[in-house]
Give the backbone structure.
Amino acid sequence: MTAPLNLVTISGSLRRGSFNTALLDNIPDLAPSGLIFRRLEIRHLPVYDGDLEVDDMPPDAVRELQRQIRASDGIVIATPEYNHGMPGGLKNAIDWLSRGPAPHGLQGVPSAMLGASDGTIGTTRSQSHLRQTLAALNSPAMPQPQVLVARAQDKIDVDGKVTDESTRKFIRGWLVEVERWMRRFPRSERE
Ligand SMILES: Cc1cc2nc3c(=O)[nH]c(=O)nc-3n(C[C@H](O)[C@H](O)[C@H](O)COP(=O)(O)O)c2cc1C
């Protein structure tokens, strides 16, 4: 039997009632049985400041996040769109992950992304921005299909459940592709 994949997830939104965090909360129910998810937090990270690095080593909170991501089989990031890009907090976390001794937190770690917005475009631009940054860090990001949940308020209820059947179906299919993508980059061959 094929071993399950342990994936970590990060939400780019910190607010209670976030549509993006809700997407992450829904994916375990929609995923094939070969995927196990664990949420990681980024809200405790300081704003990037090179003076917080001691002997080129980032703070312990960053090192721990790097360790958890490197110990996983891949990362799934849910990103809102803020002013046509990814939120500053998410970019800040990724900037920290790229620091310290090689390999950094995302080097060679396969990634996939999804996003929700209350507007009509559904995070297209923030996902492009996130892709560009992941490419800089040599994290292979799954190119297609893309989960762009527009008008999320019509598809996710107040309890955070994705209620829209076509969105649920799309995410189910996306998760099948996520498993296929992550298995292309086995952890044992990463570095
Ligand atoms: C500072 C800020 C900028 C935003 N800029 C955009 C934007 O450029 N495009 C967009 O579709 N939505 C934009 N929005 C709306 C977000 O998509 C919406 O608030 C969404 O619900 C945020 O994700 P969350 O529910 O996971 O917190 C912006 C929201 C904020 C707070």
